[in-house]
């Protein structure tokens, strides 16, 4: 019985809450200890910050069903079963989330190619929401498994295959444990896992093929990048960006392939970014992240323009994602919607 359970279950809104829950009982403490890993799981399943709503719904269902739980299985396994069902419910009525490069070939860096299709996009997630504390190797693994490319690739899998692959390949559950969670057979789990692997291999994406963690040399590269971008120094940027780099700008479906096209965009249609200020923030999806404020069109001050998520590999920047939904994203990353004086 839970007569005094008083979870503070408020769906994620537009700020950085001081606390995700007000702890009022030992049971709440038990649930709360799984918040980060469940959020990471739901984020991989959904590809969006709806993951936080999914975890809230998981806790609500757990609270309502706790009387019937009676410890027949481990609490963690039970919560994952609930979270999986919540995600299945949410995925039933929603389009697949994607990145611009999932929808078609790269385009020419001209303004006429800017389109905003009726498409749900992969959304960035602050690392603190999906990467817990603990063993450094586990932290690295958690960051790799929420990389934008990997999360986007997961969205190509049917929901059950997606759950099987995440549970088996990312969380290292045994096939028998996954079969129990999904109420199916081990043979069915192994079959789903094999099909999911084939799909991801065809897209050349796995957790181990995503970009490595940022080291000290990369931190110096990022400092040089910020200085070069703020000065709009194309020569310096040329030396920092890989020749095969890509750039995308959700909600536009246009994406660019190659350093030359990226720089042509920056000095052409994107020239309004000249003179921007770039502010480092908490990493998103295991990658360095910045808030970009560009000069206001009025000529006075700066206005929020993009959340930049930057991928690095072998000492060069290999991918830029400029998320333009600043009204939603900046508060999520603790950035003001007005550039601080």
Biggest sheet, open or closed, and with what strands and sense?
6 strands, mixed
Strand order of the largest sheet: 2-1-6-5-4-3
Q: What would you call the shape? A: globular
Question: What is the CATH architecture descriptor of the domain at 216-332?
Answer: Roll
Q: How is the CATH topology of the domain at 216-332 named?
A: Nuclear Transport Factor 2, Chain: A
Could you characterize the architecture of this molecule?
With 341 residues, the protein is α+β, with helices and mostly antiparallel strands. The protein has helices at 26-32, 35-46, 50-69, 75-92, 127-130, 136-144, 148-154, 159-170, 175-182, 186-202, 216-231, 234-240, 259-267, 326-332, and strands at 241-248, 255-257, 277-284, 287-295, 302-313, 316-323. Among the domains are: 1-94, Rna Polymerase Sigma Factor, Chain: A, CATH 1.10.1740.10; 216-332, Nuclear Transport Factor 2, Chain: A, CATH 3.10.450.50. It has 14 helices and six strands. It has a six-stranded mixed β-sheet. Helix 3 crosses helix 4 (75-92).
Brief descriptors of the model:
about 350 residues; alpha+beta; Rna Polymerase Sigma Factor, Chain: A; Nuclear Transport Factor 2, Chain: A; six-stranded mixed beta sheet; 14 helices; about 45% helix; globular; disordered N terminus
Topology:
Elements: H1 26-32, H2 35-46, H3 50-69, H4 75-92, H5 127-130, H6 136-144, H7 148-154, H8 159-170, H9 175-182, H10 186-202, H11 216-231, H12 234-240, E1 241-248, E2 255-257, H13 259-267, E3 277-284, E4 287-295, E5 302-313, E6 316-323, H14 326-332
Parallel strand pairs: 1-6
Antiparallel strand pairs: 1-2, 3-4, 4-5, 5-6
Helix pairs in contact: 2-3, 2-4, 3-4, 8-10, 9-10, 11-12
């Amino acid at each position: 019985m839970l007569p005094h359970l008083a979870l503070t279950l408020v769906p994620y809104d537009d700020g950085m809450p001081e606390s995700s829950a007000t702890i009022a009982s030992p049971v709440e403490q038990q649930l709360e200890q799984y918040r980060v890993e469940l959020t990471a799981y739901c984020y991989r399943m959904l590809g969006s910050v709806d993951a936080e709503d999914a975890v809230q719904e998981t806790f609500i269902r757990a609270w309502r069903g706790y009387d019937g739980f009676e410890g027949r299985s481990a609490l963690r396994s039970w919560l994952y079963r609930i979270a999986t069902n919540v995600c299945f419910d949410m995925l039933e009525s929603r389009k697949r989330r994607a990145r611009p490069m999932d929808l078609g070939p790269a385009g020419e860096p001209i303004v006429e190619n800017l389109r905003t299709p009726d498409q749900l996009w992969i959304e960035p997630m602050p690392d603190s929401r999906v990467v817990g504390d603990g063993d450094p190797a586990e932290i690295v693994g958690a960051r790799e498994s929420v990389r934008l490319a990997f999360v986007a690739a997961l969205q190509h899998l049917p929901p059950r295959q997606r759950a099987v692959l995440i549970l088996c390949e990312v969380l290292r559950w045994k096939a028998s444990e996954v079969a129990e969670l999904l109420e199916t057979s081990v043979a069915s789990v192994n079959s789903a896992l094999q099909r999911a692997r084939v799909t991801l291999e065809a897209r050349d994406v796995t957790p181990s093929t995503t970009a490595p963690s940022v080291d000290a040399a990369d931190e110096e590269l990022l400092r040089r990048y910020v200085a070069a971008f703020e000065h709009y120094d194309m020569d310096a940027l040329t030396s920092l960006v890989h020749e095969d780099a890509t750039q995308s700008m959700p909600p536009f479906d246009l994406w660019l392939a190659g350093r030359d096209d990226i720089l042509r965009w920056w000095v052409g249609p994107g020239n309004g970014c000249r003179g921007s200020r770039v502010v480092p923030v908490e990493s998103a999806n295991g990658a360095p992240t910045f808030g970009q404020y560009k000069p206001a069109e009025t000529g006075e001050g700066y206005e929020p323009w993009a959340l930049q998520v930057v991928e690095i590999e072998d000492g060069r920047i290999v991918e830029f994602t400029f998320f333009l939904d600043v009204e939603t994203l900046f508060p999520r990353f603790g950035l003001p919607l007005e550039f601080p004086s």
